[in-house]
Amino acid sequence: MIVYADNAATTKISEKSLRAMMPLFTEDYGNPSSLHSIGQRAKEYLEEARGKVAKCINAEPSEIYFTSGGSEADNQALRSAANIGKKRGKNHIISSKFEHHAVLHTLNALEKEGFEITLLDVYSNGIVKPEDVEKAITDKTCLVTIMTANNEIGTIQPIKEIGEICRKKKVLFHTDAVQAAGHIPIDVQDMNVDMLSISGHKFHGPKGVGALYARKGVILSNIIEGGAQERRKRAGTENMPAIVGMSVALEDAVNEMYKTSKYVTGLRNKLTEGLKDIPKSRINGDLERRLPGTLNMCFEGIEGEGILLWLDQNGIEASSGSACTSGSLDPSHVLLSIGVPVEIAHGSLRLSISEYNTEEEIDHIIKTVPKVVSYLRKMSPVWEKIMKEEK
Ligand SMILES: *Cc1c(COP(=O)(O)O)cnc(C)c1O
User: Of 95, 96, 100, which is best to mutate to test ligand 1, by the most ligand atoms within 8 angstroms of its C-beta?
Assistant: First the structure.
């Protein structure tokens, strides 16, 4: 049995999305900028896709800009707000310590360019406090960027409340909703956001495509210069199959959300119940305010990499946290930000479930994880030390 439990890293493309993409490769392969019929047909597909994405997040089609993915959307949102700020003599940006690296590394770059960055604490429940955002805002603040849901621990942030504060203080507010879109309701009006990023491959759409929502009146800066595509804000011939595939996947995810969320939450709860009593383990992040499919745990005395390799041997594909930091031996910045001690953060495991998983697969994980954990602990000098200190 092969169990894919790494849906926060990427998802399997849905049949619907894949089928919707096919004509764009075969018959309707036109360039939307061409004036002939096949080009104009592509243009129709493009605008239909834009309309679908807009509808799914309660935006206007003219507020949707297609990008190469969540990372590009994040980069463009932050760069745009920074440029708007600079023109008004504002150079202060507020974010949190547990953002995705697409945000954190863009902030590092902006810091080198003279921006002042405040990274807020997240607390042990993995949730940012709106009052901390309010306290951090100064008359120099040009942007607040806080993710809708965290990619490692799944906790959902009080975006609406933070948005209210930003609106009151007249500060631009961006949210990275890459983990959230297609999984929990997204409504840019209700959430009081000015910019929002999504990515196709996190909700059973294709990879290499995303979108940036930018409220009417927010002037975007280009990351990619060239032709006049995307109302001059993102050059390059549109990735038509991917754009169409993403729009269909998002529409489907939103239509089925109630059912999917109930099913996936059920599986996740079963998984949590099945694993929570492993000795010297902990569940990271708030248990209620979190995405349906995500469970992040730490096991003392062992390394996340070891757990992953042994789970893989047993047909379970999971992650130690973020796919972006795997390969490095540093513990997750997310777990450190919520106060997990370094030595414990090393033993992390993220299981992320989707509607493609079954009860049997969850049973297999519940049976396998405790075995792997105790096997690795038997060989671990760190575990031996922990046990000695117990006595
Ligand atoms: C996956 C992810 C991204 C990056 O999106 P890509 O489309 O892979 O570039 C950004 N932010 C979060 C929270 C993510 O989970």
Answer: 100
- Which class is 15-255 in CATH? alpha beta
Amino acid making up residue 307: I
Residue 156, ligand 1, Cβ within 6 A = no
- With a 6 Å cutoff on the Cβ, whether 199 touches ligand 1 is yes
Q: Which fold has domain 257-390?
A: Aspartate Aminotransferase, domain 1 (3.90.1150)
> Does 298 participate in catalysis according to the annotation?
no
pLDDT tens digits, 196-230: 999 999 999 999 999 999 999 999 999 999 999 99
Backbone angles phi, psi at 135, to 5 degrees: -65, -30
Question: What residues of the chain score a pLDDT lower than 70?
Answer: 322-329
Per-residue pLDDT tens digits for 121-141: 999 999 999 999 999 999 999
Q: Whole-model pTM?
A: 0.97
User: What is the enclosing helix (H) or strand (E) of 241?
Assistant: helix 240-255
Q: Where are the domains of the chain?
A: 15-255, 257-390
Assess whether the C-beta atom of 151 lies below 6 angstroms from ligand 1.
yes
